[in-house]
Write a structure and sequence with these properties.
CATH architecture of the largest domain: Up-down Bundle
Strand content: under 5%
Helix content: 55-70%
Order of helices and strands: HHHHHHHHH
Radius of gyration: 17 Å
Number of domains: 2
Number of strands: 0
CATH superfamily of the largest domain: AhpD-like
Low-confidence stretches: none
Number of helices: 9
C-alpha cells in the first residue's frame, strides 16, 4: 500500500478492473503501477485506458504526441509519468536532445515541435485560457484547430494519470530505470 492506495493485480482488483489489467498485461507484457493503482476504481481505470487508446487516434504523429505528453507532464510535475514517457518517447524515435529539453522546460530546436511544446504547456498551465495570439502562433507553426482540440485529449489523458500519481505517490516501474526525473517544484500540495 502506498499513501493509502493498493497496487492491485488481477487477483485483488474488482472483476471489471481485472479484465482491463489482463488486457494491459497481454498488450504490454507487464502491468504498470499506474494501472495497478487505478484498478481500485474500475471507472477510473477504464477512463484512462480508453483515453489512452483515443489519444493514439489524434492527428499527431507519434513523435509529436510524445513531445506534447512530455510538455503536459512537465507542467503537472508528474515524476512517474516523466520517467515513463521519457522511455516511451525514445521508443517513438524522439531524439535525446529534444527529450532533455522538454524535461528541463527549455526550447527545442525544431520550430514546429517547439510551437507544439509551448502550446501544450500553456494550455496545461493556464487550464485552457490562452489568447487568440497563442492560438494563432500555434496555427502559424503548421497546426490546425483539430490539433488544438487533440491537445485536450492528450491533456485529459495525462490529467488522470498525473493526478493519480500525485495522490498515490505511485512508485516507478522497472522499465523507467535511468529515466528518473526531479520536478521543478513549482507546484505545492494544498494546505
Amino acid at each position: 500500500m502506498i499513501n493509502g492506495f493498493t497496487l492491485h493485480d488481477a487477483s485483488t482488483a474488482a472483476p471489471a478492473s481485472a479484465d482491463i489489467l489482463n488486457g494491459v498485461q497481454k498488450a504490454w507484457g507487464f502491468v504498470p503501477n499506474l494501472h495497478r493503482v487505478l484498478a481500485e476504481s474500475p471507472a477510473a481505470l477504464e477512463a484512462y485506458n480508453t483515453l489512452w487508446d483515443i489519444a493514439e487516434k489524434t492527428g499527431f504523429a507519434p513523435q509529436e504526441r510524445n513531445i506534447a505528453y512530455l510538455a503536459i507532464i512537465y507542467e503537472n510535475e508528474c515524476t512517474y509519468c516523466m520517467a515513463g514517457h521519457t522511455n516511451l518517447s525514445r521508443m517513438a524515435k524522439v531524439d535525446d536532445d529534444t527529450i532533455a529539453a522538454v524535461r528541463e522546460g527549455r526550447p527545442i530546436a525544431d520550430p514546429k515541435l517547439e510551437a507544439l511544446r509551448q502550446f501544450a504547456a500553456k494550455i496545461t498551465r493556464q487550464r485552457g485560457f490562452v489568447s487568440e495570439a497563442d492560438v494563432a502562433a500555434f496555427r502559424a507553426a503548421g497546426y490546425d484547430n483539430r490539433a488544438v482540440l487533440d491537445l485536450l485529449v492528450l491533456g485529459a489523458t495525462k490529467l488522470i494519470s498525473n493526478y493519480t500519481n500525485h495522490l498515490a505517490q505511485t512508485p516507478n516501474d522497472s522499465f523507467m530505470k535511468g529515466a528518473e526525473w526531479t520536478a521543478p517544484g513549482k507546484l505545492r500540495p494544498a494546505a
